[in-house]
Design a protein that fits this description.
The complex is a heterodimer. In chain A, 75% of the residues lie in helices and 2% in strands. By secondary structure, chain A is mostly helical. In chain A, α3 packs antiparallel against α11, α12 crosses α13 and α13 packs antiparallel against α14. Classes of the chains: A mainly alpha, B alpha/beta.
Amino acid sequence: MNNNNKFHLSDLLNVEGATVFFALAVLVLFSSVFAPSFLTPENISNVLVQSVFVMILGIGMTYVLISGGIDLSVGSAMGLAAAVCVYCINAGLPLPLALLLGLATGAAAGFVNAYLIVGLGFADFIATLGTLSLMRGIVEVMTASTRLNSKDPGFMFLAGGSLGGVPFAVLVALVVAIVAGVILARTTMGRAVYGVGLNPKSSFLAGVLVNRVRFSVFVVSGLCAGLSGILLASRLSSVHPAMGTGYELTAIAAAALGGASLSGGRGSVLGTALGALFLAILQNTLSLMSVNAFWFQIITGVIIVLAVLMDGGVRRFVAQRARAA
Amino acid sequence: MSVGGRRVQPFCTMKPAEARAAEVRPHLVEVRNVVKRFPGVVALGDAVLEIRRGEVHALLGENGAGKSTLIKLLNGIYQPDGGTILVNGVDQTIDGPRAAQALGISTIYQEHTLAADLSPIENIFLGRELKSASGFVVDRAAMKKRAETLWAQFGGDRRDLGRPVAELGGLKQRLIEIIKALAFEASLVIMDEPTAQLPDGERALLLAHIRAMRDRGVAVLLVTHRLDELAGTVDRVTVFRDGRWVGTMPMSETSVDDIIHKMVGRDVGSMAAAAARDADQPLDDGAPEVLRAVGLVRRGVLHDVSLTLKAGEVLGIGGLAGSGRTEVARALIGADPIDAGTIWANGRQVSPSSPADAVRAGIFMVPEERKTQGIVAGLDVSRNITISAPEKVAQSTFIQRRRERQVAAGYVRELRIKTRSPAEFIENLSGGNQQKVLFARALFSDPNIIIVDEPTQGIDVGAKTEVYRLIRDFVARGRSVIVISSELPELLGLSDRVMIMREGRKAGEIAVPIGAAGDQAAMALLQRQVMALATGGKIEQ
């Protein structure tokens, strides 16, 4: 941005997802002051676990968004993966195998989306809207007569246990974020995802396997949805018919808060993770302050719009400064 | 004197402004000394054009001659930076297509602009529906009646008017666009390559309809590359070259050869010479063949195209825009699927299913339309370079940013790319420097064949000569280049051999003798030969 090494505020603001970082800092400050029980270890641990589901879902969504696509089916994929996993546990399968089958269900959902979109040329919005409905239907069938419950101690540990004082689910999310973040930011695959989102035509002619990239991001998204669903089922120790409903929008919101662009090419795993954390803390704070749950929806909506507006404003400001320089 | 049964005034090739003194009634449209500049380019300088009532007037010139700019000035998309446009003798400011329509000027663009799912009636009145007396309700009956009257003039079947436009053929769609223009009392209809996508039979019919329109008193300004369409249809022609008026002549007093001469007869020396091979580095006749394509077919686009390329050779592909030049290149690199044909690269048969395969086979294309197909805006210079082979700056799959930046910095130095740093976003570079980055991208994939499509589109003269130098350096190392260009001096200067495409077929091939670039007469003759092949005219010996 600048020729010299002098520090400029604009340099900091230009970092991907910087807006959400500031917003998060302000929110934590606010919560600490106005919600006295916010800073207790139990609550911190609770809010972190609460953020994990949207975070993992949002990380998969980030891949799709950066590539220029959208995946509306992740909420249903969560539910389906969870249902399959718990069903397998109850059928007596060993836990690792049940978990693997749950993850495979998520990946398979992503695979179907990818095939519809890349293989058959459906619009991503329509294809994933279709699989959203389809998978939700299957979850409802699977949970029609009875709720799928599991008190399997190993399964309960996923979202209930902790290692060295840190909730296990948070560790899982941390590992996912680091792996996904490094792949996106540092590998040739990650580079290709950005290239495809920014300009698919140019990337294609430069030798990027555009279709392979577009295919993989949906599989990644499905896999993340599967993992998130399994963790949520462990947290609830059951799968109910509507599990995961609406999560796709929260995941998109987290990614958008974190600087991801719905037109592709922009976004980061770190930004999305902070976005998910922000939403979880916001909900937690409002409930600690006994604010009616309806307000959470309203406030979230306002903040998302503001964040995206600010992000765009900052970007334009920085671009103008760059041109003027 | 009479053309097409109409009285035509005697003409001469003097500037219309001077001829005007003899006239009493003002012309329908008169463009006087109009200038239009874009950043870094003068698109039109001192342009003149005069259109008379009820004539078919052809506007001719090579790509980049300024025809489209002139049209956009007439229909109000652009505003002139100098000069005046008179309509019926009155100085007019045309500030948009609506204003142009109000003055009786309608334009039919090259790209089809009809909504495929709507009926012809709906299309004709789209956005300007006739209203009933109350002013609130769309008057379907009135629109139907008006459309039927016009459609009948073109001998159309009224049942066509109720069907979706998509179900009508190409000719009928074109006619509907004409009616759309006429429905609002146009006295001048501008048509940009109206026959471009029509088969020969329909082409002749459309031209007949254009003549009939003229006989009903509507003036037509026809932009076309098909010079064989002129005789019999066109009353007068105006030729532009490099944004300047060259001449206006009655068709009866000129010939296609003369028109081609006027279209290309510029000072061809300097640009061609800048691009040309040094006399002391002649092409090695015994060099091995590095690329051979036989019988490339892509249905409806390419018909049985074959080519060969030797090590150290520059093969030019010429032809008009839309003639299939770019499509040949896209077929070679697997960007478009082919229906038939075989490709050998470096002695092995290849069937690239995507440009990634072509990169592996040692072929890289720097595409036309730098902004939309070339650069990846939002990535910096270094990432734009390494995108063609990121694994070369990666350890296993992890990109080594330092190495990537060093590699980029090397290219920035070597190709003299003007940028503040390799970490600068590519969209902040000038067009010429962006083009050099794209060339660096090509070089980074280490190909032995580079295809460049319009390599100097929209860049200034200085940057052009640098791009020529890059191409020369590349072939001097025994590698090969295919260059596609609309600029004939550039094409002929760079190439050892030029193949000319017309309507998806190879129309011919011309060898460019070494040293021809410095010889004005030889260059002019070569240019006329290329134009003749590209437009379907006779080849001059």
